Amino acid sequence: MPKQERAEETRRRILEAAQETFASQGYQATSVAEICQRAGVTKGAFFYHFPTKHALFLALLEDWLSQLDQYLNPDRYLGNNVAQSLYAMADLLKAGLTQGRDYLPMFLEFWLQAARDPVVWQATIEPYRRYRAFFANLYLQGMNEGSLCTADPSLAAVAMVSLALGLLLQGLMDHESVNWEEAAPAAFRWVLSLMAPDPATTP
Amino acid sequence: MPKQERAEETRRRILEAAQETFASQGYQATSVAEICQRAGVTKGAFFYHFPTKHALFLALLEDWLSQLDQYLNPDRYLGNNVAQSLYAMADLLKAGLTQGRDYLPMFLEFWLQAARDPVVWQATIEPYRRYRAFFANLYLQGMNEGSLCTADPSLAAVAMVSLALGLLLQGLMDHESVNWEEAAPAAFRWVLSLMAPDPATTP
DNA sequence: TCTTAAATACCGACCAGTTGGTATAATTTT
DNA sequence: AAAATTATACCAACTGGTCGGTATTTAAGA
Lengths: 203, 203
What we know:
Chains A, B: Residues 31-50 bind DNA. The first copy, chain A, is mostly helical. Chain A has helices at residues 3-25, 32-39, 43-49, 53-71, 82-99, 104-114, 118-145, 153-173, 180-195. Chain A contains nine helices and no strands. In chain A, helix 7 packs across helix 8 (153-173). The longest helix of chain A has 28 residues, at 118-145. The termini of chain A are far apart.
């Protein structure tokens, strides 16, 4: 096997093992040795690819963020009008609930580190700002075309992002008491239906 | 000083120091020795009052939960009708945002541990179930008295709790980009206004 | 009230095990 | 041979927790 290829695979395996182990035990509680064992790699290889344990964490965060952006790409959900687009986006909640369970611990780990480390904080918080801006813009557009009722767009954006975040977190944490995969999109769509004055625009 | 009194104070100081240190550094990253130093107490005293480090964490969690329940007591906000009561409860968001900043790291710590430890999970998740049930009941009442529009009460409760949770989390994490102390209650009230068909009932 | 014994609350040195990280050697590809 | 990559052995620092001992308060007996 070519050298570069092999090295990339080693790096990838370390990242994979780290994600699994961090998720199940937490950052501090997992040792570098444990990650190496899980990845089938020795410490030498580890510290060749990552200068410190924390650097590995940051690499993992970057991976997470790029995956998230790719996953939440809202362009796929554009419909005839804004209200319909938002309706379609409610499906993201269901998908997030089914696929996101394994990622929840890492997600919380990122937030926890974000509360302390400014670098992690900046990277963690940035997507939310972007989403709020995106939804504010979308809401304004919906108002102009008449599919959404009159309101402060930035306030509406804050509400929608908060609602989605709260639904996801509760659903991922408490996956037993409620059928969240149905309830979360339903709740989101219900709130949307309140925002759309004309029932005809929201199927 | 009476023996019992002194012991209680020692215990209290350990809890206080632990909360501060856990909040600023995380559970795993803070050593028992560090807590002891901050509390002005030796290890002997520590392990006299708490059998393990984890037991201390659980004691802290219990404290947190009882404080939370006391703080969120919704009976204080009852108004003429349900819509008005909900409106008044939006102030809790502002209070939570101003006072909750110091508690956010511990809150995240609890959630993180809850994702792994069943005992912590049960205790952490229980309040949300209770709040959802409470709001579902309240919404039903509001429908019956005509101050809230027709909808599935449990769905509405899920939406309201999720919205509040998302607002609080975003506001506590990203306390710079938005004036959350105004925006959070405003967003909540805006959604409420959509649920209340009669503008007269919502001041 | 004074003495004494026991219970309580606390001290701090110490332990075995683990940690992230290093130094260096061995192996492979170019 | 040179460079890049992985393996092994090792370390100083630190971890949660233990343990024998101590000081002080409490309770009982005389």
